[in-house]
Specification:
This protein has 2 domains: about 270 residues, Aminopeptidase (3-Layer(aba) Sandwich); about 130 residues, Aminopeptidase i, Domain 2 (Roll). By secondary structure, it is an alpha/beta fold. Strand 16, helix 9 and strand 17 form a beta-alpha-beta unit. It is built from 11 helices and 20 strands.
Amino acid sequence: MQQNDFVNGLLDFIKASPTPFHVVQNMVVILESAGFKQLREKDAWSAEVGEACFVTRNDSSIIAFRLNQPLVEHGINMVGAHTDSPCLKVKPNPEITEKGYLQLGVEVYGGALLNPWFDRDLSLAGRVSYLDKKGQIAHQLINWQKAIATIPSLAIHLDREANENRKINKQTDLPPVLMRISAEEVDEICFSDLLLEQVKACDVNATKVLDYELSFYDLQAPAVIGLNDEFIAAARLDNLLSCYTGLMALIDQQGSQNRLLICSDHEEIGSVSAAGAQGNFLKSVLNRLCGGEEALVRTMASSLMISVDNAHAIHPNFADRHDANHGPMINAGPVIKTNANQRYATNSETAAMFKQWAAQADVPVQSFVVRSDMACGSTIGPTTAKELGVRTVDVGVPTFAMHSIRELAGRQDACYLYAVLKQSFK
């Protein structure tokens, strides 16, 4: 795939994927167009050599694989990423009517950087569960796709210390403003009614909204920026860049290695869910593919997981926040992440394997270790290594402003990562 085609595809994918549900929906479309067959967990199945299949859970996690050789003898090379990103999620009873405005109560999902959420054009998307005309429960993905809300900042004149000492109260400062309402409308406003109209607009026969999982997102489109078009600026680069890159590598590589991609939900809040990496989704699928526990153990002994999640690029304004010898640069290659306390699952063996693939793909590699006096984040890598007993390496693309509403990564780095993941599947 040409570099421009890959980057443009990435931008389109991120724009069309404001929630984990939309991420998986869009991945399904791409996989089906590439000839992958959908399997369902509730059905009886076993994939054979030569098949390319995928299976989803909760509409927010997905596993796709292509089997080219017997698993026990040859193992399977895997890439793992996550579909979720920090955001503001709408509460169950969200209506707030204050001083003639309609607002919605929100919860902060994950470790969001909150200041950049103010004064943005916000839209709303997610999954709605409803009753149809037959009285059956059904589900519909919705996306307003227009600016319907904003979180206005308090003017500097009313908060003179805002630039020096501003604190954000997650309960009172974050409810987005949707519209003006009259005193007569206050008792008539019902968010579920607004949702019902949106669901019906999707050409479904809905009679009542039962529940929903909805997230606000920034409507500004992803873009290639910089004087020399070096950077990608977008929401949810952490971790949709990894999801898309792994997906394209899985589809485009025609080598003989067995290969699998898993993109899990709920990583940003610890992965403790049926659809998260601490659930049994991956292990149960692998067990079915291998045909039993002993075959699974033997397969994992010959396998590898590449856990792909963005890394912290060294910031020119805050260079002292990095270890002096481990400050990844943007557009200087993917980063191998290590931690002595196993917050990352990389070891010398798996790092060597990734370096070898990078060398074969003519891609530079960098290293990241957090400062010894700072706390270290984590990924799905250690969880997957623990659950499966599989060799694992943690890698990622260097990124600025991680967990902001708009992050920044390198255009060349995305292409570098794609090349190495393709090589790992070869």
